[in-house]
């Protein structure tokens, strides 16, 4: 077999990524086997004739209904045709009913001696495994492994963001700190496994008490913080009421015993947070409010109003 007997499509069919070759006006010249297989997996008939259909027209239809990824592809192809770039690439989600998938689209122009675009080769590369790993690593970086809520590092980053938005009058927020009463005694008497179950359940109670968009984080040890979006004492009191109701009814069954778990709560409403420009100062003040509750006994709430 000599080199001239190997066709372009033979070469493209060896590639794992889905490849389509188009003319500058968008007309499809050829697609490889991976492209056809992917199309079949997503409901297209095997007999569908891709050659002669227009890739740009399909992109334009998607752009018209607000598809930002299609707009990136459409604009990228125009830049290649106009000789503004040599290639473009971007990542995009392509989720199915059964799976979340991500792809990278990479496109490069074929040019003649006059540097005119004669064709464009577009590859769709499956990067799902890489994105899943990236997402998992990101989750490890910002989530508490025991309770699966956000960790202190992420909390502090978000507090700085909230303060910046607050100073620009873009949004307001309140803080709630929850601390498990006599947690050390629980650990010492019943063991760390029971202590872990207490923390996990506290975190679940907090998640169940907040509104969509509020942030729940483990600050450290047996201390938790909620960042509540919105302003006003009425808004924060509603959340505190839901939270205290759940926490006061929180009992943990240990063998034939029922352990009643109590928590102290400190609250910094938006009327206070709006005047604080440093996240460490915010944490100090809400911590003071929480310890004020502890000094009053168990299951107490202190709302700092000034």
Automatic annotation (TrEMBL):
<feature type="domain" description="GGDEF">
    <location>
        <begin position="171"/>
        <end position="306"/>
    </location>
</feature>
<dbReference type="InterPro" id="IPR043128">
    <property type="entry name" value="Rev_trsase/Diguanyl_cyclase"/>
</dbReference>
<dbReference type="GO" id="GO:1902201">
    <property type="term" value="P:negative regulation of bacterial-type flagellum-dependent cell motility"/>
</dbReference>
<dbReference type="GO" id="GO:0005886">
    <property type="term" value="C:plasma membrane"/>
</dbReference>
<dbReference type="InterPro" id="IPR000160">
    <property type="entry name" value="GGDEF_dom"/>
</dbReference>
<dbReference type="GO" id="GO:0052621">
    <property type="term" value="F:diguanylate cyclase activity"/>
</dbReference>
<dbReference type="Pfam" id="PF00990">
    <property type="entry name" value="GGDEF"/>
</dbReference>
<dbReference type="InterPro" id="IPR035965">
    <property type="entry name" value="PAS-like_dom_sf"/>
</dbReference>
<protein>
    <submittedName>
        <fullName>Diguanylate cyclase (GGDEF)-like protein</fullName>
    </submittedName>
</protein>
<dbReference type="InterPro" id="IPR029787">
    <property type="entry name" value="Nucleotide_cyclase"/>
</dbReference>
<dbReference type="GO" id="GO:0043709">
    <property type="term" value="P:cell adhesion involved in single-species biofilm formation"/>
</dbReference>
<dbReference type="InterPro" id="IPR050469">
    <property type="entry name" value="Diguanylate_Cyclase"/>
</dbReference>
């Amino acid at each position: 077999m000599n080199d001239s007997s190997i066709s372009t499509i033979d070469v493209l069919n060896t590639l794992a990524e889905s490849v389509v070759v188009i003319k500058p006006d968008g007309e499809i010249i050829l697609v490889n086997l991976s492209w056809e297989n992917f199309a079949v997996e997503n409901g297209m008939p095997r007999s569908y004739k891709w050659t002669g259909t227009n890739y740009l027209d399909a992109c334009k239809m998607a752009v018209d209904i607000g598809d930002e990824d299609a707009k990136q592809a459409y604009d990228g192809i125009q830049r290649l045709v106009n000789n503004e770039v040599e290639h473009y690439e971007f990542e995009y989600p392509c989720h199915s009913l059964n799976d979340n998938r991500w792809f990278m689209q990479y496109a490069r122009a074929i040019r003649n001696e006059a540097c005119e675009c004669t064709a464009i080769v577009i590859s769709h590369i499956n990067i799902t495994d890489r994105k899943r790993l990236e997402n998992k690593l990101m989750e490890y970086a910002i989530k508490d492994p025991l309770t699966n809520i956000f960790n202190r590092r992420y909390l502090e980053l978000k507090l700085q963001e909230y303060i910046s938005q607050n100073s620009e009058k873009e949004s307001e927020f309140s803080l709630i700190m929850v601390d498990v009463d006599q947690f050390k005694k629980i650990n010492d008497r019943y063991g760390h496994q029971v202590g872990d179950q207490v923390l996990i359940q506290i975190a679940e109670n907090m998640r169940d008490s907040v509104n969509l968009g509020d942030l729940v984080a483990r600050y450290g040890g047996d201390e938790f913080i909620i960042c509540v979006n919105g302003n006003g004492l009425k808004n924060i009191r509603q959340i505190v009421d839901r939270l205290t109701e759940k926490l006061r009814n929180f009992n943990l069954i240990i063998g034939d015993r029922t352990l009643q778990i109590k928590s102290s709560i400190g609250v910094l409403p938006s009327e206070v947070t709006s005047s604080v420009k440093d996240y460490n100062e915010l944490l100090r003040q809400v911590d003071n409010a929480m310890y004020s509750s502890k000094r009053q006994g168990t299951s107490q709430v202190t709302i700092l109003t000034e």
